[in-house]
Amino acid sequence: MAALQTSAPPVSPPGQDRVIVKRKRTVAQRFRSDWPLLLMTLPAMAQLAVFFYWPSAWNVIAFMDYSPHRPFWENPLVGFAWFERLFNNPYFMPALLNTLKYSFANLLFLFPLSIILALIMHSVVSTKVRSVFQSIVYLPYFFSWVLVVTVFVQTLGSDGLVSNWLLDFGGDRLSFTSNPDTFMFLAWLQWAWKDAGWGMIIFLAALASINPSLYEAAAVDGASRWRRMWHITLPGIRPVIVLLLILHIGGILSVGFEQYQLQRDAIGYQTTEVLDTFIYYRSVIGTEGPSFGTAAGLFKGVIGLILVLIANSVAHRLGEQGIYQKS
Amino acid sequence: MTAIDIKLKPRRKSARPVWDEEPSVLGKAVKALFLICYGAAIVLPIWAVVATSFASEESLASAGGNLLLIPTDFSFAAYQEIFDGGALTKSLILTIGLTAGGTALSMVLTIGAAYGLSRTGSLLHRPLLMLVLFTFLFAPGLYPSFLVVQKLGLFNNYLSIILPMALSAFNLIVLRSFFMNSVPTELLDAARMDGAGEFRTLFKIVLPMSKAILAVIALFYAVGYWNIYFSAVLYIPGLETQPIQVVLQRMLMSTQGLPGAAANVSQYQSAAPDAALKMAVVVCTIIPIVIMYPFIQKHFTKAVITGAIKG
């Protein structure tokens, strides 16, 4: 199970494929030679244990009537009662639907945009233009959401730069940084501004790995520019597209917290409530209590786990490599 | 005759391969227009932010807005305000400290585990690797993580910002595959023959050969810590000095006339124009990223893409 490999598995270097006969070593012998490696791994494992596996185990309180004020073992088991309560919560379904809506919108919009950007960049021959444009386009990927939202409010908000231009020309102020009806459009602009460049870089790297002699051979055979793109370029970047799709499908219920929380007050909670903000506002700082929030998070985590496994096995069946190989 | 023909042919200006047909003028124009518009949409807002941060009250008022495209005068009032030792200075110092400390810790964890797990067949290699890889598939959830921070007594403690995000399994796997694929095994074997222990091998051979990728990973961690917002909202809501992103968010809320920030903003009110001060804070959060950026860019495609996607 090698993570994140799309190309062929590494071939062992020449000279190593001869059969090495090793005596089976006991655990004590292996410990004596490998203890420094274990020691080096220990801090990272401790971090994972405390901040990944321990909280993962705490998910059991989704099945308990948990209260922090009594000893852990005295909390009564309640089965799936919290999940029932979650699904009956009037704010849960809208939050879930919003999450799916933004997730699919992101997929349907950002993916093609990144690929188109990468194709355009790839067709630019001048290396100077390419490097200048690349450095500009993926700079905002490293900006925080706070920064992105601030810049958007300042330029496109009702007191912002564009509104002032419009006023000068006798128009009206823009209102869409605070208009719930156009939030989807705003979100698209923000993704395009912040993340499209990053997607472009990944696809560009995939494009660069396509053997140029394929293009040459096709051109010699009379294939036009578009046919070359259809028969060489797109199949060439298919493994990367599949890999990113699987990762995206696994994270379909994780659209991020910050972009929505930061615009919650301006846009209104009905439009910006996604699962993460739902958990935070209803449970962490709200009144619904720990078990409720944990149930919502566990629902999200389990759906994500199932979706990754399904997407990956579908990818295997289609002959792609996916995020991990069957081994 | 043919020799003259060849001589008269215009020389190809670009590096376009011979078999590739020259695109039409219209196609080129559309492409150029698209690239220019896209680039301008990214650069102009950033430029306006920088220009506004140096603006004085009068020029802002005459422009009638929050942002200026063309600065008419220069004023450092906003930056004096930030660095005068008040709440903003403290916030910047805190954020720099969190970034430096967090990145150092992250690098220790990541390098240790990446090297420790880079030898197939070592003791416990496979189960430990599985423990790392499982983090790609599942997320423990917001509330349980919050609960653990509380149980550890780290609530409203700056450590709660660093520790939970100290290890990125993705970076760990990228670095591990670099150690496995790009550091020659012969070199490691030779070192072992000469009696060097694992620690010595790591510090004297492996790390010096991995400088570029180590720098990229460190920068990714640093950007992550620098941009911290959500964990501060979640884990340290009660502390007076907040990371710079939280401060920026509060200032943003106050100019939008929104509730939820009013109580906290008074401490940042100042003599400098409101918009200029806010944009100066934005510039301060951008500057470190812009400084690190050329480096990330130089080594990024080489190090991370080849490490992660090509395996």
From TrEMBL, chain A:
Residues 96-311 form the ABC transmembrane type-1 domain. It is found in: Cell membrane. Signal peptide: none annotated. This is ABC transporter permease subunit. It is a multi-pass membrane protein. PROSITE patterns: ABC_TM1. It holds the Pfam family BPD_transp_1. The chain crosses the membrane at residues 35-54, 102-125, 137-157, 196-215, 236-257, 292-311. It comes from Glycomyces luteolus. InterPro entries: MetI-like, MetI-like_sf, UgpAE/MalFG_permease.
Automatic annotation (TrEMBL), chain B:
This is Carbohydrate ABC transporter permease. It comes from the Bacteria. The keyword Coiled coil does not apply. GO terms for biological process: transmembrane transport. It is a multi-pass membrane protein. The lineage of its organism: Bacteria, Bacillati, Actinomycetota, Actinomycetes, Glycomycetales. InterPro entries: MetI-like (IPR000515), MetI-like_sf (IPR035906). The chain crosses the membrane at residues 32-55, 92-116, 128-146, 158-179, 212-236, 275-296. Belongs to the binding-protein-dependent transport system permease family. Its main location: membrane. Keywords: Cell membrane, Membrane, Transmembrane, Transmembrane helix, Transport. Residues 92-292 form the ABC transmembrane type-1 domain. One of its GO terms (cellular component) is plasma membrane. Pfam families: BPD_transp_1. It is found in: Cell membrane.
